[in-house]
Design brief:
8 strands, Rossmann fold, alpha/beta, 4 helices
Length: 151
Amino acid sequence: MKIIVPVKQVAALDDEFELVDGGSGVDPDSVEWDLNEWDTFSLEAAMQIRESNGDGEVVAISVGDDPAEDGLRGALARGADRAIRIWDDALADADALAVARALAAAVEPESPDLVLCGVQSSDAVNSATGIALAGYLGLPHVAVVKKIELD
C-alpha cells in the first residue's frame, strides 16, 4: 500500500524575538521551523498503517523552499520511505488552492492507495489544502479523522 502524506514546515517564534523594518516584520533569525503538528499525526498514522499491513511505502511530499526540505528530512527521520519537494518561485505566495494544485500534479503519477493530510496548518489554519487536493484528484475525503481502523 502506498500512502502519500503532504507535510508543511511552519514557523514559530523564539522566546525572545526582534522586529525589523519599524515593526513590519520579524527578524528571520528569531524564527524556528518545524514540521506542522497535525502533519506529524498523519505521518505517524501512515507508518502505523504500513506496519499493520506488513509492507508498503510512505511518501512525504511538500510544497516549499529551503525550510520545506528540512521538514522532509524530518519526515524521513520519523520513518517515511521517500520524500518529494515541489518548488518554484511562482509558488512563493501561493494560496491553499495553488498549493493543492501543485501537490495534485505530483501525487497523481504516484498512484497512491491513500493520501493522509493533517487537518490544518498551525500558521494559516484554513483547513483547505487537503480538501482541495482530494477535489483535484477526484478522491473522496473526510475532513477530520480521530481514529483509523483497517478492515
